[in-house]
Amino acid sequence: MDAPASPKPPLLVRLANPRGFCAGVDRAIQIVERAIEVYGAPVYVRHEIVHNVHVVERLRTLGAVFVEEVSECPSDRPVIFSAHGAPKAATQEAERRNIVYLDATCPLVSKVHLDAERHFEAGREIVLIGHAGHPEVLGTLGQLPDGAITLLETLEDALAFQPRDPTNLAYVTQTTLSVDDTIEMVEALRARFPAIAGPHREDICYATTNRQEAVKRVANGADLVLVVGSQKSSNSQRLVEVAIRAGAADARLIDDASGLTNDMLGGVKRVGLTAGASAPEVLVEGVLAALRARFDVTLEEADAKPEGITFKLPRQLVSQGA
Description:
- By secondary structure, this protein is of the alpha/beta class.
- The protein has helices at residues 23-39, 53-62, 88-96, 107-121, 135-141, 155-160, 179-192, 206-219, 234-245, 262-265, 281-294, 315-318, and strands at 10-15, 43-46, 64-67, 79-81, 101-103, 125-129, 149-152, 169-173, 224-228, 251-254, 270-275, 296-301.
- The protein has three domains: 10-21 and 206-301, 4-hydroxy-3-methylbut-2-enyl diphosphate reductase, catalytic domain (Cobalt-precorrin-4 Transmethylase, domain 1, 3-Layer(aba) Sandwich), CATH 3.40.1010.20; 23-105 and 310-318, Rossmann fold (3-Layer(aba) Sandwich), CATH 3.40.50.11270; 108-192, Cobalt-precorrin-4 Transmethylase, domain 1 (3-Layer(aba) Sandwich).
- The protein contains twelve helices and twelve strands.
- The chain is flat.
């Protein structure tokens, strides 16, 4: 007689809320989908529209072609600028070549661009708190002439920075940073340069802040926090860091359920689960299904006030009946 199958080990999964898509990501994806409907395929997208391989591949099957520069685009097809924003040189090239272009830049990133321009016009030296090489940072640096903005990546950078005039200085920040790290850097700058000007409202976006606060609530006491998102996604990477600081024994960034490993899950009893702002909910559902296949899962989902924020589509698409 066969021995009875051993029962699945118990696992408490605490699901963070809010998680996943933010309004800027949702708008950017809608712009690509709607542009394909209006203009037909292919439409070109400068840089990945958002940092998620599943989103990008689905849009590619619909007719989106992803490129890194406008120079790779034919002049007779529309080009879309990604949610991360683009330097002015990109839009200027599109205009010079008479290419129809649609701007999917998140409005909260556009706010940072406007703040930087406002400080520049006021004659202030500008520092940008952010990560070198990230497309959002490249887009912000590219709003102004070379040398107008100095990038600061770390607290050490903030403590070492020497402005031309300490009384005529301003800062802006990348929207997807760690809230706690950014506060530390801003406080260091303000301590050194009390006259430094900042944004009218903080630059870190509501979705980044909300998702970091949510992951803190599920991380405390967790054996493992799983963050569903791309390795390229800054806001997803920050969620991993925040989870560790909030008390999780371990935290991992995974693209989807295929990223789960025996080593990662061995001996865990409490897991926190969240998703970065560019990760679709279907990927979270896939991770939950994979956990249920291995464990006897008890699911706890935190209550949260709906964010209720939406952004309008570009006028070119609305005028076509979107």
